[in-house]
Design goal:
Blueprint: H1 18-22, H2 35-40, H3 61-75, H4 110-116, H5 144-147, H6 164-169, H7 185-189, H8 193-205, H9 215-223, H10 228-242, H11 248-265, H12 272-281, H13 285-288, H14 295-310, H15 318-333, H16 338-341, H17 367-389, H18 395-417, H19 436-457, H20 459-464, E1 466-467, H21 478-481, E2 492-493, H22 497-516, H23 529-536, H24 557-579, H25 582-600, H26 608-615
Antiparallel strand pairs: 1-2
Helix pairs in contact: 3-11, 8-10, 10-11, 10-12, 11-12, 12-14, 14-15, 15-17, 17-18, 17-19, 18-19, 19-22, 19-23, 23-25, 24-25, 25-26
Length: 622
């Protein structure tokens, strides 16, 4: 039996190099560098001991300043070094606490998770199949406690998309590689509060759904410790969202985005991480500055994708980026002139017959619709600018107008002929906040939005369609019958501006009733602002004689319906101010309110695109 001798004491050191402490490993504290770092062939970060102020009993207001200061240190790292951005270590603060006020629930600290990240390998397109050390409790999946906070609508059957007016139209009918070069050691060993915030919020904003199929969560989590471009792009997005909390984030976010684009420009290769970073920071310029359309990034992406599609060895993830370009061009086509965008981007994914449709994070299941709506945007913007600049009627102008009308007819037929898969034919998103019917509804709403642009700018298209509002139910009242328009009966055309405007208002109401069924917290929220502006601009309240303005007779059921739908539009966009980056949403609110103000003041043929251009409110509505 062992005697009760004195137990040998073990010296506990609170020293050790930063890397060993971050990975909870024993450090021999050799000078100038520890033995473990020497064995690994890496530079030892040293033995400075970090002291952390306890905030347990303090109010939370100062933490915003602390986060801003930490992010500023990260953003200024490359500026303080004479080397290129790709060779610069990001000096990300090394405190282990992160943003306590955000209530993270992703499991281990960012210090541990950065060390566990591995290259993307074969995990391309929508998911990461081989996650190695990652677990469902880490950054890859949305925490259940977060998704449970999202109020969800009950499952909506297919009949929820009641579309009598739209239906009445009917048709006339090798492994990817990460970017080259040495990876800054700071990326793999230091945490970042902005990166933490990115994973907390941004994947649910930047994709129509958030699950392991969301590349803006899975691929970014696998790449941010290896790719400086992805790292900077993710931080810039997080800073842009936080700019409402503290103005310092505005400058930080803009600088991080510029640095990300510089890194991308310095890489001629079209590796997965470079394209993903370009997809992240390219369309988000309006998050930092409302009028920033990111045209340079758009052209860069187009050029790289054209080069890849023309190559003999196309990467398997190319279709993901090509389909994403369809949405990018759609939201740009209403904000930028056609000569700046170049020819329309064309892509048609190959879907095997009888195969289920996999939703894309941006286009959902409406890639064809997005492409047509983009073409409509190019056409109507060019036509509106031309009408503003044309002072005299010439033969050339008349010929161009005739060609534009023919193009509009063709686009109308193509848009009406688009087929969207049924809910049962869509692969589940595995996101409780975004069931498959949300994805299909957004595709249908984009169709509504595109048709409304054609019918507003080219009213002859609607006039050419035979109308018979009384044919469906001759005994019904005019107000009730106004919701059903039979465009197949050959009785009377829409030949007056008043009847045409009434039809457009009812068509808009039909679409917005579909949007009402989708909760504001749906994963499709960042893909709704353009739809809302395009539809809400046709919410025209009926006029009454001046002597009846202050009487109850002025409030008919039709007037009340339009007024209540206007309130829904304002409420939905106001809710988006806290759910998605707010700067473009404020522009959307300004456009809608000024459009309604002009309509209510008695102006004729008010069009939201004219209002946006005249007031200088041009932005990407996403």
């Amino acid at each position: 039996m062992v005697g009760s001798g004195t137990r040998r004491s073990v010296k506990k050191s609170r020293g050790g190099c930063t890397r060993c402490k971050a990975q909870h490993l024993k450090c021999d504290e050799k000078k100038p560098g520890c033995g473990r770092c020497e064995r690994l062939g890496i530079t030892c970060p040293g033995y400075s001991q970090s002291l952390r102020w306890s905030t347990k009993h303090e109010v939370n207001s100062w933490r915003v300043d602390r986060l801003a200061a930490a992010a500023a240190a990260s953003a200024s790292a490359s500026a303080s070094s004479p080397t290129s951005p790709e060779q610069t270590d990001l000096q990300i603060p090394a405190q282990n606490g992160g943003l306590e006020w955000l209530d993270f629930s992703y499991g281990p600290s960012m210090e541990n998770e950065v060390g566990l990240a591995s290259p993307i390998g074969d995990n391309h397109l929508f998911g990461i199949d081989n996650l190695h050390d990652w677990t469902p409790n880490d950054l890859l999946l949305v925490p259940e406690e977060n998704t449970s906070l999202t109020p969800l609508m009950p499952h909506q059957p297919s009949s929820a998309l009641d579309q009598p007016m739209l239906k009445s139209l009917g048709p006339r009918r090798s492994r990817p590689q990460t970017s080259g070069g040495a990876i800054p050691k700071a990326l793999a060993h230091q945490p970042s509060d902005l990166l933490s915030y990115y994973f907390q919020v941004m994947p649910r904003v930047y994709s129509t759904f958030d699950s392991h199929k969301n590349p803006f969560r899975t691929a970014v989590s696998d790449l941010f410790s290896h790719s400086l471009a992805v790292n900077l792009a993710a931080q810039s997005m997080a800073a842009a969202f936080l700019s409402e909390v503290h103005p310092r984030f505005a400058a930080i976010g803009a600088k991080l985005r510029r640095e990300a684009l510089q890194v991308i420009q310095s890489k001629p290769s079209n590796d997965y991480d470079v394209l993903l970073a370009l997809m992240m920071c390219g369309p988000t310029g309006n998050w930092h500055q409302t009028s920033d359309l990111g045209l340079a990034a758009y052209k860069e992406m187009r050029s790289r994708l054209h080069a890849l599609s023309a190559s003999e060895h196309q990467p398997p993830n190319l279709p993901f980026f090509q389909e994403g370009m369809l949405h990018w061009e759609m939201i740009l086509s209403y904000a930028a002139d056609s000569n700046l965008l170049g020819p329309g981007f064309k892509y048609r994914p190959a879907i095997p017959r009888h195969a289920k449709h996999e939703a894309h994070p941006w286009t959902g299941v409406g890639h064809q619709t997005a492409q047509i709506v983009a073409d409509i945007g190019r056409l109507v913007r060019r036509q509106r600018l031309s009408s503003r600049e044309q002072q005299f009627v010439t033969q050339a102008y008349i010929r161009q107008m005739s060609q534009d009308l023919d193009t509009a007819r063709e686009l109308e037929q193509r848009l009406l002929a688009c087929e969207h898969p049924d809910e049962s034919d869509i692969v589940p998103t595995e996101d409780a906040a975004t069931p498959a019917w949300h994805i299909r509804a957004i595709a249908e709403l984009n169709r509504y939005a595109g048709l409304l642009q054609l019918y507003r700018v080219f009213p002859d298209l609607l006039t050419e369609r035979p109308q018979a509002e009384d044919a469906t139910d001759p005994t019904a009242s005019e107000e009730n019958n106004a919701t059903l328009v039979d465009l197949t009966n050959l009785s009377s055309p829409l030949h007056t501006d008043s009847r045409r405007n009434q039809w457009l208002t009812r068509f808009s109401l039909e679409a917005l009733r579909i949007l009402e069924t989708i909760p504001a917290e749906s994963g499709t929220k960042d893909f709704q602002p353009f739809i809302i502006v395009a539809l809400a601009s046709e919410l025209v309240c009926e006029t009454v004689p001046p002597q009846q303005q202050d009487t109850t007779a002025a409030v008919s059921s039709a007037f009340a319906e339009v007024a209540m739908m206007r309130k829904f539009v304002i409420d939905r966009l106001t809710a988006f101010l806290r759910l998605i980056p707010p700067k473009p949403i404020r522009a959307c609110l300004d456009i809608i309110r000024d459009t309604w103000r002009r309509i209510d003041a008695g102006e004729c043929d008010v069009y939201w695109l004219d209002v946006m251009i005249q007031n200088g409110w041009t932005t990407i509505m996403a």
